Amino acid sequence: MNASPSSRALPSLLDLEAAARARALLLRLQVRELAGLRTLRVVVARPRPDQPPLLLGELKGWAMPLAAGLQLDTMRVQGPATQGVGPLIWAATFAWALEATPCRRARLLAIRDAEQQHRRLVRYFQRLGFTATRELGAAPGDLPLRLVWGGSGLLMRGDCAEGLARACAQLDRLWPEG
């Protein structure tokens, strides 16, 4: 991808699709809009002859027409040979937000299921440039946000351009050119 956080231009969504294709992967975005709210599903799959593509990873979220309107919900990577799938999904998500929406910042919840898994999620999201904004717990004021996010945990915020640069730097390490 060759887009370091500090120097080169960030890749476009088309660049990311081409990089996926060069590694025999399909990168697809499904976007639906209703009353200004866009739902997003980013999918990476491996084509298979005479069979449906094998789903390797996906991210779901939604975007409101605001600078801080990108809300990221479910992210998962599964199956064999998934090296680079996670960073590709993140890069595509951030590239889409920057190209197709006014969103420049994103929010997500590092869900608190098991403590060790929660710490792992927080570290993972910090590597993408997310920072903690507040803990969602059992307080009555947290109920509306817990309903939106589906649980308790650490609410985090990140910059889309920084997230794209960091995801691309991860791809550069995982998918060296040549």
Mind explaining what this structure looks like?
This protein has 178 residues and is an alpha+beta fold. The protein starts with 12 loop residues before the first helix and ends with a helix. Helix 1 (13-22) packs antiparallel against helix 2 (85-100) and helix 2 packs antiparallel against helix 5. The protein has one domain: 3-Layer(aba) Sandwich (Aminopeptidase). The protein is globular, with a radius of gyration of 16 Å. Strands 1-2-3-4-5-7-6 form a 7-stranded mixed beta sheet. It has helices spanning 13-22, 85-100, 115-127, 143-149, 160-174, and strands at residues 26-34, 37-48, 51-63, 70-77, 105-111, 131-136, 153-159.
| Quantity of strands, as a count | 7
Low-confidence stretches: 3-7
Major β-sheet annotation:
7 strands, mixed
What is the total domain count? 1
Rough shape?
globular
Class derived from helix and strand content: alpha+beta
The number of helical runs is 5
From the coordinates shown, what is the CATH architecture? 3-Layer(aba) Sandwich
Offer a quick outline of the entry.
By secondary structure, the chain is an alpha+beta fold. The chain has 5 helices and 7 strands; from the N terminus they run H-E-E-E-E-H-E-H-E-H-E-H.
Helix/strand layout:
Layout: H1 13-22, E1 26-34, E2 37-48, E3 51-63, E4 70-77, H2 85-100, E5 105-111, H3 115-127, E6 131-136, H4 143-149, E7 153-159, H5 160-174
Parallel strand pairs: 4-5
Antiparallel strand pairs: 1-2, 2-3, 3-4, 5-7, 6-7
Keywords:
single chain, 178 residues, alpha+beta, Aminopeptidase, 7-stranded mixed β-sheet, 7 strands, globular, disordered N terminus
